[in-house]
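Subject: design request, 157 residues
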């Protein structure tokens, strides 16, 4: 009985994983296992950011349709790796690079520059040493001010 239940669970999990991979691009640069990246997002990130990265009013800014823009302003690439939620996550450098690459592809592919180089474990290891603390919001506002002005209200936190 116990064995049968466990087997049923495995089959269900397998079907869910297959369904997920069918719904996403075959390959995301810098993401070797999209199902694992999504799992990390669920466990480590979406509590604040919400499942769809729409954010939590008053505490966590929306990222959906926006975060890719940081890659086009000086200092933005570093910022994405150094915000506290990223830099201090309980994930290895490799898993952190993977979930950040996945986050960009999943929530704002339109703004990821064509020449984007995916984050690597080595880069993440170096960047996360300099975690932003109270200054994160100020740095964010300065970077966002450099985005092309296209009326992004979501950026004015
Ligand atoms: C405790 C809440 C919390 C958790 C958990 C969290 N974040 Fe965040 N995140 C924030 C807040 C708040 C900001 C805005 C910058 C700041 O003030 O820290 C932010 C900013 C970001 C940014 C920069 C883009 C922007 O809009 O400023 C990225 C990328 C990001 N988070 C990704 C992640 C990922 C990936 C995880 C999981 C590994 C994660 N976050 C976990 C709260 C959180």
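Subject: RE: design request

Done. Sequence follows.
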């Amino acid at each position: 009985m116990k064995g049968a239940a466990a087997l049923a669970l495995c089959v269900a999990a397998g079907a869910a994983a297959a369904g997920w991979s069918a719904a996403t691009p075959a390959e995301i640069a810098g993401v070797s296992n999209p199902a694992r990246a999504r799992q990390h997002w669920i466990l480590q990130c979406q509590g604040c950011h919400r499942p769809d990265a729409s954010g939590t009013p008053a505490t966590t800014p929306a990222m959906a349709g926006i975060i890719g823009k940081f890659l086009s302003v000086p200092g933005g690439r570093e910022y994405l790796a150094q915000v506290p939620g990223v830099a201090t996550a309980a994930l290895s450098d490799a898993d952190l690079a993977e979930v950040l690459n996945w986050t960009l592809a999943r929530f704002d592919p339109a703004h990821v520059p064509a020449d984007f180089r995916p984050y690597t474990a080595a880069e993440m290891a170096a960047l996360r040493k300099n975690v932003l603390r109270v200054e994160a919001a100020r740095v964010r506002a300065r970077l966002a001010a450099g985005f092309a002005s296209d009326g992004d209200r979501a950026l004015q936190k």
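Helices lie at 2-23, 34-49, 76-82, 84-87, 93-107, 121-127, 136-145.
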